[in-house]
Amino acid sequence: MHNFSKEQYLFIVKEIRERMFSAKVLSNEKNLVFIESTSLQIRKILELIAYLSVLVNNEKLNHKEKNEWHPTKIIEALNKKTTIFYPFPSYVFPPSKDGDQPILIPVGYENALSQEDFVSAYNICGKNLHAQHPLKEKSNIEENFIKNKKILDKLKGLLQKHTIGIRHENNKYTFLYVQIDFTNDDDAKPTIIQEYKTHIFNESQLKSIFNTKNVYDMDL
């Protein structure tokens, strides 16, 4: 039985949102210290995204994998156990009446951080966290500044509207739809997390729906 908690998910999302705002402010300064600080926030955001995947897939992982802190190792472990664990950029329209299914509209990863981008971003930012070695080539401040900006934009594209499939037990799945407003003012909308029952009964159906090539309307 899955012991997933929407409250736990929301708690992590709240921290991601706060760190995204901090990183966005820091990323506006083309200064070595600010670039390093932005990279640190991005790395922590990536760690938190990996923890979201652990949270909704913890029954697939062994004790060591559940307690792993390194995000790329978490991604690697989950890829060996399942193909459906990573946030999926998409819109979900709720059912209009009882008995209807929600409608999922995939967006894809063109403007969002894919799994491949995730690993690359973690490594790129990691290089920015070390002091400059006097005998090595100097860091390219302009290049690192631009890379951080692009990563933050893709993180927003990944998380602001995403869906995750959750397996509760054999032949029982739900879908979690999340909307995050990354603006930081009085008009910011509260984060929405809605869990939907679905007519999905096995992993092959999940793979079909969470296929980035299938960018069209689909009943869940």
Description:
With 220 residues, the protein is an alpha+beta fold. The protein has one domain. Helix content is 45%, strand content 16%. Helix 1 runs antiparallel to helix 2 (32-56), helix 2 packs parallel to helix 4 (71-81) and helix 5 (115-127) runs antiparallel to helix 6 (141-159). It is globular and about 65 Å long.
Helices and strands, with pairings:
Layout: H1 6-26, H2 32-56, H3 63-66, H4 71-81, E1 88-93, E2 103-106, H5 115-127, H6 141-159, E3 161-169, E4 172-179, E5 192-197, H7 203-209, E6 218-219
Antiparallel strand pairs: 1-2, 1-3, 2-6, 3-4, 4-5
Helix pairs in contact: 1-2, 2-4, 2-5, 2-6, 5-6
What are its keywords?
about 220 residues; alpha+beta; 6-stranded antiparallel beta sheet; 7 helices; globular; disordered C terminus
The helix content, as a percent range, equals: 40-55%
Give the structural class: alpha+beta
- Cross-sheet strand order for the largest sheet: 5-4-3-1-2-6
Q: How many individual domains? A: 1
Shape: globular
Unreliable sequence segments: 213-220
Q: Could you give the distance between the termini? A: 22 Å
Q: Quick one: how many beta strands?
A: 6
Tell me about the biggest sheet? Answer: 6 strands, antiparallel
